[in-house]
Amino acid sequence: MLFPGRASQKAKRPAWRGSPPSGEAKSVAHRASTSVFCSERSQTKTRARRDPSPGPVCGEPPPDARPADPFRATLPRVSEPTPLAIPVPEAGTVSGAVHAPRSGAGVAFALAPGAGTSMENPLLVTVANALAGRGHVVLRFNFPYRERGSRRPDPTKTLVATYRAAAGALRAMHPDRPLVIGGRSMGGRMASMLAAEGYACNGLIFLGYPLHPAGKPGQLRDRHLPDVRAPMLFVQGTRDALCDLALLRPVLARLGDRATLHEVQGGDHGFEVRKSDGRTPESVLTEVIDTCAAWIDEVVLG
User: Fold this and answer.
1) What strands, in cross-sheet order, belong to the sheet with 137-141?
2) CB atoms < 10 A from the CB of 118, how many?
3) How far is C-alpha 22 from the chain's CA centre?
4) C-alpha torsion sign, points 43, 157, 126, 14
């Protein structure tokens, strides 16, 4: 089987059925380059100075100090995404963007941002473009606090309700496609909490699951994961300050064959690598995209 149920000890390049990734997808990864990895660095000390009280999702990467999404204009698009307004009960309306493929019968994937970014995060945009190029529909969306212009995340109840509304809107648009939910950091964790409540989906993808707050490995966020019945893909950097892999592996072992771990060697919480790792940002981005696409093909569609 392409993706064993137990967590792998080393990152492996996923096997492909059929032809390798298209030149268009590789070009997407190459041109996105370093900018994708610069938008979600953890700045816990900065948040502490701004706001000494813990937020409702404390320990997630805080908002970035730089202007939001400075590289968005350089990101290539497979097709122009379609704007979508998503009503959220008792929380107003949030923005979404749907990336539709030109052809292909893939999945419908709801992709949520992390705490420190919006749906325009370059990593999310690039992943959405690349997966749309491989036949999948991808919905990016905001949480209400971002719509208000705030950097402080909403209470967990509101975040999960927003995810439920977004996933429901995507399912209504594409009822014949298998539904996959997930996202970056906090966005992925909210997807897992929704699934743990019994929300039906065909799979979950976590791009940097925040297992614990930075510097607090004793505060694990894993209690709800056994209640998630769908298969799960964890894409984690080996230097992730919010996910000690030595703590994650036993958690995934208890989940059995529902959980798959792919380790991005040298990557931090945002998959940024160091020069000493001997890797380029575009090669890491290609690895992340290829891993997600291969897992969808093998586990969800296979």
Assistant:
1) 82-88, 92-99, 137-141, 108-112, 179-184, 203-207, 232-237, 259-264
2) 20
3) 22
4) positive
Residues of the chain by 3-state class (helix, strand, coil), percent to 5: 35, 15, 50
Phi, psi of 242 (to 5 degrees): -105, 10
Q: What does pTM read for this prediction? A: 0.78
- Tell me how far apart the alpha carbons of residues 200 and 197 are, in angstroms, rounded to a whole number: 9
Residue with tokens 């994937």: 109
pLDDT digits (tens, 9 = 90+) for 261-275: 999 999 999 999 999
Residue 56: the pLDDT is 43
- Burial group, residue 15, by CB count within 10 angstroms (0-12, 13-18, 19+): exposed
189 token code pair: 């964790």
CA dist 208 and 42 (Å) reads 12
- For residue 236, the cross-strand partners are 263
